[in-house]
C-alpha cells in the first residue's frame, strides 16, 4: 500500500475537525495516555496533574493516563486510581481544569495484572497464570525482582470485570466524556491474549476464542455500565512490552476486532500502528467505527524532529481517523500550534524526569508564547 503523503503544516489533515462520541474535536491529534507517577501515595490525582492536562487542552482529545480499577491492579508507585470517592474527587479537579481550557478527556482504565508488586499495592499481583514478569519492577524502595502472580480464579475474573464497570461509572462521575479499556502493552487484558502469559486450560485459555474472552467481557461490562458511545478500547498487536510474546498475533486480532465491533464502542486505539503491516490493514477493514492510530516511532528511539506529524499523516492516508502522539505532547504543551505552524519542538529532557513526581519535566516545558515573551523581555531590558 502506498501511503506517501506530501503536505505542509497549513494543509495537513491532522488539523481538520472531527467528531467522536458526541464530541466536536477541533483537530485529529489525540494526546496518548502516558503514565507519569504524579498521583499521591493513595492514587489520588494531585493539583499538578490538573495543571499538566490543562496545559495540553488544545489536543483534539486527551486520553488521561492509566487509572487502576481496584487496589490489586496497581502497577507502580504513585499511579492514579479510580475506585473510591477520593479518586473521583481528584480526577474531577483535573477534568474541570481541562474543560475550563476548552478540552475534552477520556480516562484509560488499566489493571496491571502481573505488572505489579506487593510493595506497591499491598497485594500479590493477579494474572491469567502464575508466570512472573521477566524483569524487575520499580517500587518505592527501588527496583525489585518481580513476584510470581497468583493465577486468577473464576471469582477473581468475575469481580475484576465488575470492578471495571464500577470504575467506568466513577470516571463519568469524575467528569470524563468516556473511558478507554486498556487491552495492550503487556497489562492484564493483554496478558490473557498472549500464549506466553496465559497457560490456562479453562474457558479463558488455550484457543484464541478463549483467550479473547476476558477482554470482551470487560468491554461488554463497561459498555453496559456507561453506554457504548462512551467507551474506547486500546490494543497493541505484536507489541512485546512487559515481556509479552503473543505467539499468534495474526490469529488473535481479526476475531477480537470483529467481536469488539459488534459491541459498537466509540473507537479502537491501535498502538505502534504501521500502515505497511498487514495486521493494521486487516484491523482497518474489520473495524467499522472510529480508528485512533498511534504511530510506530520506535521504543526508545529519539523523537523525530516533526514529533510524528509525517507518520500520523501516513496513517490518516491509510484509513485512520485520529492520530495519538505521546512523547511529543509530553514535552510540548502547545504541540498542536507547533505542528500547525511548523515551529521547532521542545526536546524531551532526561528520561528519569518523566517519573520523578515533581513539577520539573512535567509542567515546566515552555510554550511558543512563553519563549517569545522571554525573548521580548530580554531585548527591552
UniProtKB/TrEMBL annotation:
GO terms for cellular component: cytosol. Residues 14-346 form the NADH:flavin oxidoreductase/NADH oxidase N-terminal domain. It comes from the Bacteria. Signal peptide: none annotated. One of its GO terms (molecular function) is oxidoreductase activity. InterPro entries: Aldolase_TIM, OxRdtase_FMN_N, Oye-like. This is Alkene reductase. It comes from Embleya hyalina.
Amino acid at each position: 500500500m502506498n501511503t506517501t503523503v506530501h503536505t505542509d503544516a497549513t494543509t495537513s489533515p491532522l488539523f481538520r475537525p472531527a467528531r467522536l462520541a458526541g464530541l466536536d474535536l477541533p483537530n485529529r491529534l489525540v494526546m496518548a495516555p502516558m503514565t507519569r507517577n504524579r498521583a499521591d501515595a493513595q492514587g489520588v490525582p494531585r493539583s499538578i496533574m490538573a495543571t499538566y492536562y490543562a496545559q495540553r487542552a488544545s489536543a483534539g482529545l486527551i486520553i488521561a493516563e492509566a487509572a487502576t480499577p481496584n487496589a490489586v491492579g496497581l502497577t507502580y508507585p504513585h499511579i492514579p486510581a479510580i475506585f473510591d470517592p477520593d479518586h473521583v474527587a481528584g480526577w474531577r479537579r483535573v477534568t474541570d481544569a481541562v474543560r475550563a481550557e476548552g478540552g475534552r478527556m477520556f480516562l484509560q482504565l488499566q489493571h496491571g495484572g502481573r505488572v505489579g508488586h506487593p510493595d506497591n499495592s499491598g497485594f500479590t499481583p493477579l494474572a491469567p497464570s502464575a508466570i512472573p514478569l521477566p524483569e524487575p519492577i520499580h517500587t518505592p524502595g527501588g527496583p525489585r525482582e518481580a513476584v510470581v502472580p497468583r493465577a486468577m480464579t473464576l471469582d477473581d475474573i468475575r469481580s475484576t470485570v465488575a470492578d471495571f464497570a464500577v470504575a467506568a461509572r466513577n470516571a463519568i462521575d469524575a467528569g470524563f466524556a468516556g473511558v478507554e479499556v486498556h487491552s495492550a502493552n503487556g497489562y492484564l487484558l493483554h496478558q490473557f491474549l498472549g500464549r506466553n502469559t496465559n497457560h490456562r486450560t479453562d474457558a479463558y485459555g488455550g484457543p484464541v476464542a478463549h483467550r479473547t474472552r476476558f477482554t470482551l467481557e470487560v468491554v461488554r461490562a463497561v459498555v453496559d455500565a456507561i453506554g457504548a458511545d462512551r467507551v474506547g478500547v486500546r490494543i497493541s498487536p505484536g507489541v512485546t512490552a512487559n515481556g509479552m510474546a503473543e505467539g499468534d498475533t495474526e490469529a488473535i486480532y481479526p476475531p477480537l476486532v470483529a467481536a469488539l465491533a459488534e459491541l459498537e464502542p466509540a473507537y479502537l486505539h491501535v498502538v505502534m500502528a504501521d500502515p505497511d503491516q498487514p495486521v493494521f490493514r486487516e484491523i482497518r477493514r474489520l473495524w467499522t467505527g472510529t480508528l485512533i492510530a498511534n504511530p510506530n516511532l520506535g521504543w526508545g528511539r529519539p523523537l523525530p524532529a516533526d514529533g510524528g506529524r509525517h507518520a500520523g499523516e501516513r496513517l490518516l492516508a491509510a484509513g485512520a481517523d485520529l492520530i495519538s502522539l505521546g512523547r511529543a505532547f509530553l514535552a510540548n504543551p502547545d504541540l498542536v500550534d507547533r505542528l500547525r505552524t511548523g515551529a521547532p519542538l521542545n526536546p524531551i529532557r532526561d528520561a528519569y524526569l518523566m517519573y520523578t513526581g515533581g513539577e520539573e519535566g512535567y509542567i515546566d516545558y515552555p510554550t511558543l508564547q512563553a519563549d517569545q515573551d522571554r525573548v521580548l523581555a530580554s531585548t527591552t531590558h
